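Q: Could you fold this chain for me?
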Amino acid sequence: MKKRGLFLIFFLFLVATAQSQIIENYQSKLRIEREVGIFSKKERAIIGIDVINFPQSSFRFEIPSGSTAFLGDKLWFFTDKDTTFQIDLLELNRQFEFDGAAEIDLTILNEKLDPGEISVFKGLFEVGSGQLFESKTLGLDFSKREISDFNDFFTIALVIILFLFAVFKLVFPIVLGFIAKPQTVFTAEDFSETGSLQKFFSADVLFYLLLINLGIGLICMLVWKVSGNPNYADFVNKDINGLIFYWFLTSFFLVILSIVKFLSLKVMVSIFDLKKFEFAHFFYLLRIISISLFLVLGFSTYFFFNDQTYLPKVLQISITGFFWVYLFGVFYMYVIGVNRTIFKNYHLFAYICTAELIPFLILSKMVIG
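A: Sure. Below is the predicted structure, expressed as structure tokens.
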């Protein structure tokens, strides 16, 4: 009787252990690759996992926080904290459709990877053996996943801007050289009698305003996309035709805003009796905006096509940097106005505060918070 009891206990122990059996530990197959660039360092862990043998088995994964996981060439999930989960092999095949492939690479991207924090097991695991290993797909359903057209839109928009820039340079080379030279920010040519452009409603100026505002509109679309703000979701989660339409609409609105800005400056100049100061004022700050736009668009394009994980930070720094550059431009314009013109200082100061500082600070408060 006692032997039967011992045999029964031993049999139950074997059954319990058989319910959770590891078939393969992939720790020995894990390899780390490092890619060092000028602006960033990338580390990736690559593990080849068997997706055809033991179809009734499951996988257990332990992934560190801040990781992006790819299965083959498809994005799987992103972890904002240390994550441990279990998924059946049949479910994995249903989601990814491996088309008979025997082994697929699991790639984990992270800025700092510790091989000890990553573990992958394949086995027959007991159902409900722990909350940490609850089977889940992390909310991704690849059969319903929508493909964003924003990357194609951004590329097409850049091509359009570069094409228009080439046309402008060919047709109006003198105007482009006058506006886009960085050194003219400090030489103050705008404030001489012959230095500033004296016509606003001309083909060259209006063409240039369209070109600049197309660039600003593209940056706006990119900021709305990267920020993930639901208030702008209707603008950036469209097909490519919708994205181009809203880009043109935003740019056209900015062109109208620029014209209104110039007309308001003209009214204020007449009020403060500053003669034709509106031309020097408008084109001097337009030059600062143009140079800043070229820099922001250049850096944003680089990170957009190379490493979008840094793009939100790049845009945040760019917007903050432009805030201070523009303020410096307004202050330097006042200094130039004091030294180069015959206007009374308090008239000039009151004019600049009314025309630039107060509206700009209000707008910056709305944008930056």
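A (continued): The first helix runs from residue 2 to 18.
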